What we know:
Elements: H1 2-28, E1 41-46, H2 53-63, E2 78-80, E3 86-88, H3 107-111, E4 112-117, H4 128-141, E5 145-147, H5 148-151, H6 159-168
Parallel strand pairs: 1-4, 1-5, 2-4
Antiparallel strand pairs: 2-3
The structure holds zinc ion.
Amino acid sequence: MKKLQLLIQRALLEIQILQIRLVIFLLKQKRTIPNLPKPKYIVLHHGGGDWSFYQVNNHHKNKWGFKSSLGYYIGYHKWISYNGKLFIARRDNEEGAHTVEKGRPHYWNRNSVGICLQGNMEEEQPTESQLNTLKKELDNYNIPIKQHKEIFATLCPGKNLSKWLSENY
Ligand SMILES: [Zn+2]
């Protein structure tokens, strides 16, 4: 009986070692894995310019190279184009690369879904199509919404999107 217990303990230990090796392997590959609990917040962003999803994806690929389990490099979980099209770049339970807080570099990326709208909402108005898609997403999650500028010194997500948010949520 004792021998069986030892065998089981050893097997469990070996499984743990394999899990750790897998994480190290994935980190070396600069890949993130969907292994986090449910997100607690939404963090809202604007792109800051008219770059498309693929342009920003390419930019983040060259800058950081952190690949998601869905094969994208863009740091946001979700992206909404001018025409309202929704891109899903990272799973909700996967670490993002969109919001760093001083003293808490990983907290928001691990506990929130980063949603970004194409455009510079400091100067442009979000399109009707973008807002329709965004509203569906926000209502669907139904969790607290933060704006990037509440966490970090930035204008993101831009005053026009902030205004819409304060009027609607
Ligand atoms: Zn932002």
